[in-house]
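Q: Hi! Curious about what EamA domain-containing protein looks like structurally. Here's the sequence.
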Amino acid sequence: MKKAYIYIILAAVIFSTMEIASKTVAADINPFQLNFIRFLIGGVILLPASMQAIKGKNIELNRNDCIYFLLTGFLGIVISMSFFQFAILYTMASTVAIIFSANPTFTTPIAYFLLNEKINKKVMLSLAVSLLGVLFILNPFGIHTDMKGIILAILSAITFALYSVVSKMRVARYGSVVINCFSFLAGDIILLALMLISHLPLFDTYQKGNITPLLVDIPIISGINYSNIAVLMYLGVVVSGLGFLFYFMAMEKSSASVASIVFFIKPALAPLFCLLILRETLTTYTIIGIVLILAGAYIMMSNNDHKQGAYS
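A: Let's find out. The predicted structure is below.
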């Protein structure tokens, strides 16, 4: 279990830099293009280790496996991460980070129904305290931001929760490396198809007054230059490669509910990184929220009931 907590901390630190990095290139690169590039890099990096893991487990991938990876890739890469990137465009990066971090609120009930993971009192207390912390950081009575970005961030959190639980269903069969790698690559195949379709004349005609320009003529390579290549590599190698790897390794060593505390630590770290890197100030509400979130994460970590069957 100690290894799971190490993976959780590593994933939380990496994921806490995701919005900052994405925001720096959001104005120059299409959201779908950004997803395609970062997860292509992440998938390629993990491919050698994935092939070795498949060989070590003597797994012969069949049609059902391919369908499964297309499903996880569609949920996690095409849907959730696209909602995430669009949310970055319409509201502050710190707001997206906080809302996205609430996805464990959805992970726990979804895991309860799909994985039959039991929920004890400590888990419920942890979720309640951490969610209260998120609400303090958002400060709903004083927040002034674009509602479109908030809605997109909420949709991203819900679909990522579903992606996490569906991935947990077969993580024992494939291993966390394989789950990450093939979900990334399968999601990229779907993204590439959608990007190519966006160049059809039909979309260009329909664009006028009916569809956002971001969905038309989506570039694949153009727009990448020396000023943003380093950020793209960071998002691909560190965030998409190592970050997701540590997250699923934590899930593999524990449960979907325990691993999800990554996203309760993240909103505590993200504002601090914004303060250090972007020089954003922390409000009193944010500081209170950070304390509550860390308290919720501590409660979850101190819960050892899963050893006696609290989690399946």
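A: A fun detail: The longest helix spans residues 63-90.
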